[in-house]
Amino acid sequence: MYKSKIIGVGHYVPDNVITNSDLEKLMDTSNEWIVERTGIQERRHIKKGSGDSPSTMGTKAAKIAMERAGVTADELDFIVFATLSPDYYFPGPGVMVQEQLGIKEIGALDVRNQCSGFIYALSVADQFIKTGMYKKILVIGAENHSGGLDMTTRGRNISVIFGDGAGAVVLEATEEENSGVLSTHLHAEGKHAEELAMIGPNTGNWVPEIMASDGKDLSYYPNMNGSFVFKNAVVRFQEVIFEALKTNNKEISDIDLLIPHQANLRISQFVQQKLDLSDDQVYNNIMRYGNTTAASIPIAMSEAWQEGKIKDGDLLCLAAFGSGFTWASALINW
Ligand SMILES: CC(C)(COP(=O)(O)OP(=O)(O)OC[C@H]1O[C@@H](n2cnc3c(N)ncnc32)[C@H](O)[C@@H]1OP(=O)(O)O)[C@@H](O)C(=O)NCCC(=O)NCCS
To answer: What is residue 200's predicted lDDT score, i.e. its pLDDT?
Structure first.
């Protein structure tokens, strides 16, 4: 039986740094408020005209992951791309990455599960490898949030949190006994779909109708019930981490590194404290990038790997919660 092993990880973020004091000039907010409530000090925003987009950033992250894996584009069997902010309404960015990498006719799948998107994408790729259908799969998470945020005081509860970037991994089939993705766990609770969402434009309320509202219809900006999201996140993170450990007969103390989706530093710290994890067992980089949704886990994984915080044989736990609501975890023997 095959397992999936992560053989390369990479990330790319735009070089345009937006600090909290930059945001103070655009809206009624403060560095103190943002740091205290979210832990975020700065984030990256795509500069208009730079050529960066979810697909091009995803391709840049993918090239780094492939180089580290020692894998060339023509060896890949499949692409899975997770994002909530695709280049186009359709087609999704998976096919664009395929074209940008110059690969001929392999399948490219797009995953729409927001902050849990990367783990959902990893899980899908893992199933294809376990069945023996594919041997090498590229999994990408990338977001362009800054293009669609309300950068006025009206949107401040959301726009200070989110940032742009991309991360990618190369998965390879392995028959090694205790190596690779041990299990993935996916959940959703659609009754809360509108608590964190961008509703418009949608097929029932299309662009001309929004334009005809004379600026009253703001459904094209994301909306979030922040405290409700927070309360659900801290519970679901813990549940799904325990589910992964229980499935594999592991304890909290077995985790070498937890990489939580970088939603909010307060959420990660709450979960760390509840699980009694040491600082060394949890990786956070939200201070520098904000919440990059589907990109946050692979960006964090790539940085942690670069910093020597992920070593061969380590037990890695990934966990995420976000819009949908969706939540997910993965346990990996590196
Ligand atoms: C968004 C979040 C930081 C807001 O913190 P909070 O303590 O819940 O704050 P509230 O939304 O209750 O707002 C408190 C006050 O701060 C204000 N406020 C909101 N955003 C602000 C900002 N950027 N700067 C200054 N003040 C702000 C609100 O208007 C409100 O003012 P009021 O009391 O005069 O009405 C917090 O709810 C959160 O982190 N939620 C989870 C978000 C998340 O993780 N989302 C991604 C999930 S994947």
So the answer is: 94
* pLDDT score recorded for residue 245: 98
Q: In the predicted model, what is the mean pLDDT of residues 150-175?
A: 98
In the chain the domains, ranked by start, together with CATH numbers, are 3-174 (3.40.47.10), 180-333 (3.40.47.10)
**Would you state the pLDDT for residue 207?**
96
| 278 Cβ inside 6 Å of ligand 1 | no
Q: Pick the residue whose CA is nearest to atom 13 on ligand 1.
A: 157
Q: Is the CB of 229 under 6 A from ligand 1?
A: yes
In the prediction, which pLDDT does 104 show?
86
DSSP string, 130-171: HTTS-SEEEEEEEE--GGG---SGGGHHHHTTB--EEEEEEE
Q: Please state, in angstroms and as integers, the Cα–Cα distance from residue 90 to each residue in 20, 85, 94, following that order.
A: 33, 11, 11
* Nearest atom, ligand 1, residue 321 CA: 48
pLDDT band at 110 (very low <50, low <70, confident <90, very high): very high
Q: Kindly report the number of other CB atoms within 10 A of residue 286's CB atom.
A: 26
Check if the beta carbon of residue 243 is closer than 8 Å to that of residue 329. Answer: yes
Residue nearest atom 1 in ligand 1 by C-alpha distance:
226
What was the pLDDT predicted at 311? Answer: 95
Index of the ligand 1 atom closest to the CA of residue 227: 37
CB atoms within 10 A of CB 127: 12
Q: Which tops the pLDDT comparison, 104 or 9? A: 9
> What's the rounded mean pLDDT across residues 288-292?
98
Q: Tell me how crowded residue 48 is: count the other CB atoms within 10 A of its CB.
A: 9
Closest Cα to atom 45, ligand 1: which residue?
A: 263
Report the interhelical angle of 296-306 vs 54-69 (nearest 10°).
30
**Ligand 1 and 38: CB distance under 6 A:** yes
Catalytic residues: 115, 261, 291
Average pLDDT over residues 94-107: 96
Determine the 3-state secondary structure of 307 from DSSP: coil
Which residues are CB-contacts of 315 (< 8 A; sequence separation ≥ 6)?
A: 250, 254, 255, 256, 257, 331, 332, 333, 334
